[in-house]
Amino acid sequence: MAEHTAENTVLCGANSYVQKFYLNPAFQKLPESIKRELQILCVSITEEAGGVLTLEFDEAGNLLFKASAEDGDYLFDDIASGMKIGRARFDHQELLEELELYYRVVFLGEKI
Q1: Total domains, the chain
Q2: How many helices (DSSP H) and strands (DSSP E) are in the chain?
């Protein structure tokens, strides 16, 4: 069963506070190269901007980037985080689209 936050399914995330990367066990069947690319993507954003970043699928299968910070974290750079996320969306557009398709087919049962 995939881990959910509210109505979203978490794919992966990185936390700069505990310096950890998380991949939802429901996605262990992804190729190692994709898992590595996701780890690099998430960790690089949190290393530069701080805070916590999660990649989540919404109910329709769209992949969302969610950045947050702990209360009182004045070092979290919301602007840098937004810029890094925008750059990651551009640089990894093909991967992100393929992940959305994978999620829609495997988890939502859509036919292609």
Answers
A1: 1
A2: 3, 5
